[in-house]
Prior knowledge:
Layout: H1 5-8, E1 21-26, H2 33-44, E2 56-61
Parallel strand pairs: 1-2
Amino acid sequence: MSGDRTYSYLWENHYKSVHGIIFVIDSTDKIRFALAADELNKILNHKDIVNRNVPILFFANKMDIKGACDA
Length: 71
């Protein structure tokens, strides 16, 4: 689902049945890293996720653009 705040309220509808999380980070937008960390923290501390072993794939997009953060 989109990370746009317009849709983030929908995420909770899927937490009980989620089998994995793909967390996409724009590797060129360093200013939003803190916001992304806050959002991830909210997800991982949600009552339907916190006591489960849910695998997470971190996907850093735009790694090919000059100035992007490395892994």
